[in-house]
Amino acid sequence: MSDSDDDVPTLSAHTLAALQEFYNEARTAEAHSTTPSDQFAVGAVEEDWRMSQFWYSDETATKLAEEVVREAGEGGRIACVSAPSVYQKLKQGVVDGSDRVSSVVLEYDRRFAAYGDDFLFYDYNEPLSFAASVAPQSFDIVLADPPYLSEECLSKVAETIKYLSKGKVLLCTGAIMEDLAKNLLDAKMCDFLPKHNKNLSNEFRCFVNYPSRLLSC
């Protein structure tokens, strides 16, 4: 067999154009194949341990989403502070009543800007740094999961919570923060035990400042 370039098959300009069109259509179809539930799947954005990100298990995300929907009420507004797993679960359309509330996610990680106007950039070091459009006491319930187990972090996040919430607070943090949660937010530890996709070394608990089903699960 000859190694000459004359023996290498070539495609006509028409065939090349048709092939390129096929590839373009295939890429377009793939881009549109992502359903809303895929977009909002817990874990659609990968955890980044450098930002102390640990996503809830699907069961826990569902339980917390059900809780905030119930407490927000018809037409209620929900703020998820450093708790994207719960925001994602609310947007999946699988929690009863989630279509009758609105929710936003406050996050330092700008990858969540993919959620458009629902994303509010949040740095706990600047707890009251919000756009003018974010009015005080404008959310029926605030669910917050401070990224670090420290008095400084929880104290600053508590400032955020008090600014945003009309009153109801659902705090998710380490059990060692119990006294501080009580002092800052008048929040009591719940019987409900939240779980993460990856086991954490610290005992993790939920705290609320209102009568909740989570208190005695």
TrEMBL record:
Molecular function (Gene Ontology), one example: nucleic acid binding
One GO term of the biological process aspect: methylation
Keywords attached to this entry: Cytoplasm, Methyltransferase, Transferase
UniProt GO cellular component terms: cytoplasm
Catalysed transformations (reactions): L-lysyl-[protein] + 3 S-adenosyl-L-methionine = N(6),N(6),N(6)-trimethyl-L-lysyl-[protein] + 3 S-adenosyl-L-homocysteine + 3 H(+)
Protein location: Cytoplasm
Function: Protein-lysine methyltransferase that selectively catalyzes the trimethylation of EEF1A at 'Lys-79'.
Name used for this protein in its record: EEF1A lysine methyltransferase 1
